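Example complex used in Figure S2.
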Amino acid sequence: GENVEQHPSTLSVQEGDSAVIKCTYSDSASNYFPWYKQELGKGPQLIIDIRSNVGEKKDQRIAVTLNKTAKHFSLHITETQPEDSAVYFCAASKGTGNQFYFGTGTSLTVIP
Amino acid sequence: GAVVSQHPSRVICKSGTSVKIECRSLDFQATTMFWYRQFPKQSLMLMATSNEGSKATYEQGVEKDKFLINHASLTLSTLTVTSAHPEDSSFYICSASFVGNTDTQYFGPGTRLTVL
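Predicted assembly (228 residues):
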């Protein structure tokens, strides 16, 4: 089965700096890679996703890169703000109704 | 768009009782709904996958007679925790896949279950 590893488990950055979270996956058949933000006591919220036919995707301050050969993908947050503080989860899936395999999460703290 | 709601948000019950949690897709029809369990500071653990009108598929180690899942319509799935025990206390979260965009899962806000 699929195994998704996520690093780092905790990350502290100064407001305005960039944050990078990395994930690796094991199953080359995985083709869909979403990222979720979870605030305390709430459900995960989709912030960006990427499919295997794309190498990079950007949405304002958030970007995701995918390296299929190396089987890793990364989340990049630029110009971080205190409201970016949350737990971020990556996931990998074979798409279309298949289950998600989640990483272990990264607790991001943005220091004002 | 793609809003998923859960009810209740919090529930406290006595050991031995049953608790029902509802998951609704408010503005779309959900092909598939998923139920997860999350312990503090841990990742999400998939419990079961349900398709409308079909029996749920449970993950290994999840007791289907204890965690009853009903997916009666394209907008509603329910999870019933039967004969709850303190070890069932957890954060339960549902998600739904969008008809026409079945790659993505949209998550509900979660239900905090505490069994006394």
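The mean pLDDT of chain A is 95. The interface with chain B takes residues 32, 34, 36, 41-46, 49, 51, 89, 93, 95-97, 99-100, 102-105 of chain A (CB under 8 Å).
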